Amino acid sequence: MNLSRRAGALLKSAALWVGVAIAVLCIALAGLGFLVTGFFIWVARHTDAASAAAITGGVLLVLALATGLLGGVLLARMRRRQPSLLSEFGGSVGLATRLIGLVVRKDPKKAMIISLAAGALAEYILSEKKK
């Protein structure tokens, strides 16, 4: 499969996942709306309608504040843990260079055969297939 087909398949897959995520979000918001309505009706049985609306609004604001604070803390932790992309790339290149050097020093003939096979594989993967 050539690179353009892979990119197309990847984009199609991403679009499908976005569609599923939007559907799940809509269903979850509808369920949340029914839960809020049920909470309001339950509180309205014990108090008057204005007090029930104020209590429901206050509870929702507290939940929004707690979600925002918790999400901010989690996102900050995630950002701190991840090393930069440049350092990861540098580490990968360094490891590959050391491995190649080790193979070449150990047996130069095998290194030549491996490089030819890698070139042929790269040509096969990246070439445009003509029908």
Overview of this protein structure:
By secondary structure, the chain is an all-alpha fold. It folds into 2 domains: 1-82; 85-131. Helices cover 90% and strands 0% of the residues. The mean pLDDT is 82.
Q: How would you sum up the major sheet?
A: none
> How many distinct beta strands?
0
Task: Please state the CA-atom Rg, rounded to the nearest Å.
Answer: 28 Å
In total, the number of domains comes to: 2
**End-to-end Cα distance:** 13 Å
Beta percentage is under 5%
Helix % is: over 70%
Structural class: mainly alpha
Spans where pLDDT lies below 50 across 5 or more residues? none
Question: Brief overview, please?
Answer:
The chain contains four helices and no strands. The chain is mainly alpha-helical and 131 residues long.
Which key terms come to mind for this protein?
131 residues, single chain, mainly alpha, 0% strand, 2 domains
How would the blueprint of this fold be written?
Elements: H1 3-46, H2 49-81, H3 85-106, H4 108-126
